[in-house]
Structure formats: C-alpha cells, structure tokens
Amino acid sequence: MAATGCPMAIQEGTIVALQSMTGFARAAGQDERMSWTWEARSVNGKSLDIRVRVPSGFEAVEKAVRAATSQQLHRGNVSLSLSIDRSGAAPTYRINQSLLDQVFALQGELAGRISAEPPSLEGLLAVRGMLESVEGEEDEVAEAAREKAIIDGGVAAITGLAAARAEEGARLEVLVADHIETITRLTEEAHAADAAQPEAHRERLRHLIDELLEAENALPEERLAQEVALLVGKSDVREELDRLRAHIAAAHDLMAEGTAVGRRFDFLCQEFNRESNTLCSKSSDVELTRIGLALKAAVEQLREQIQNVE
Fold this sequence. Notes:
Blueprint: E1 2-4, E2 23-30, E3 35-43, E4 48-53, H1 59-72, E5 76-85, E6 92-95, H2 97-110, H3 121-126, E7 131-134, H4 140-195, H5 197-212, H6 221-234, H7 238-257, H8 262-282, H9 286-306
Parallel strand pairs: 4-5
Antiparallel strand pairs: 1-2, 2-3, 3-5, 6-7
C-alpha cells in the first residue's frame, strides 16, 4: 500500500507551530480479488466538516475512516473518496440452470413436429444468458481481512493529508512570522513618532495663533499650554500602542502553541485591525498617519494568511 501527499517530506522530529487547512493525499492497496484507492483532500473551513464517499456495501469502512479523520484533524472541509476496481479478479462462470431447463422443455414440446438435431454444446452456450459470471464464495475471515486493509488504506490517506497540511503550515509559519515582524517594526516607529507629537502640536498651534493675531495680542503661555494639552489628549495613541504590543506578544504565543489556533489568530487579527484604525483616526501627524496606514496593510496581509491556518 502506498500513500502520497505533497512533494516535500517532513523530517522526523520537526516541530511545526502552525497547521494549514489545505492539502491532498492518496493511498492504494489490492489483493487477489480487487484493488482500491483512497483520495483525501481538504480546504479552508470554519469548523471540521468531513465528507466520505464509498461504494455500496462499504458502510462499515466509511464509519471507521470518518472516526479516524476526526481524531487527526480539527478544522477544514475534508473530503475522502474510495474507489474499487474488480477488473483484476479472474471471472468465474456457471450455467444458468433455469434457462437450460427451459431450452430442453421447448425441445420436448417441438419433438415430432419439426425435424431437428439435438442441440449441441456450442449452440447451448451461444444462447444469451446461458453463461453467468459469478464471484467465488469467500469465507468471513478473508472478507474481514480485506475490510481491515481498506480501512488501513483510508487511515494512511488521512495521515498523508495531515502531513501535507503540516508541510503547508511550515510555509505559512514563515509568512506569518514576517508579517508579525513588520507589525512590530511599525508599532515601534509609531511609538517614536507619537513621542514627538506634543512639541509638534505646540509649534503648530503657536504658528496658527501668530498668523491670526497681532503680536501684542498673542495668547498667554498658560492658555497656549491648555490648548496644546487638549489637542494632545484627543490625539493620544499610547493606549493603542500598548495594546498593539500586547497583541504582538499574544501572536508569538499562538505561533509557539501548536495546532488548532486559527480561530483565535483570526480574532487577534480583528483586534490588530481595530487598534490600527484608531491609530489612524487619532493621528494629526503626517508621519504617524503614514505609519498607521502601513500598519493596516500589514495587518490585512497577516489576516489573509491566517485564513488558511487550522
């Protein structure tokens, strides 16, 4: 029996933090009576949805393979199909005794009425339906052994599918880590830009007042400080930056945790997006706005990759 999945092979002992929901694998086997092939594939899904297609008479196989799938996979739309080929088995024939009796009965009825030679063997075998193809009888032990072999093939296909998803997860992990690194860098840039905002507000407000008022009517320093404090309070993004840092730490924790973190990672992306939106809306500085827009783009790229994570 052979199982095939993605071309890459996972090295023994390799730890993959993220698992993908997409993959494909195949497993095949045969005995003296038939051959069988399992195909297993999966795509993204909100939960674990398993669909198994087997030929009539293989219901017990379907139940066993479905149970094995739910043990190995946690999320995704999973499809498994079993095909059976009996063409390799040597056919066995027998005489249709009922039809043969009818032929001899007709010969008796027509005897004396028409002149005819007794039917030959070749003539009898040429009658449509005289030869029947039958499967040889098989004991319960042999049938049980075949059923187990077919189930084992299904489990092998599922295992191959899980390996393919793990390989894809390894590639996803690299992309996700890059996006998180970009978000981290932009968050620190935003922190540095925010630190310069109070003085920038002060200079901007002073410049506006000097243009509107004569020098002798300029605002007192205390009033100017009050106006600056009001602007700084409205544009204070320290809480958003603190939450972004906390979300970054949570993202690293999820990556190190293991499988089945896709749902929580997706929720975390929503939180990243919320903070970056607030950062942009509060910003009154061109540089901070630029950083906020870049941060939104990085978060969206991260979210797109997370949609593939189990």
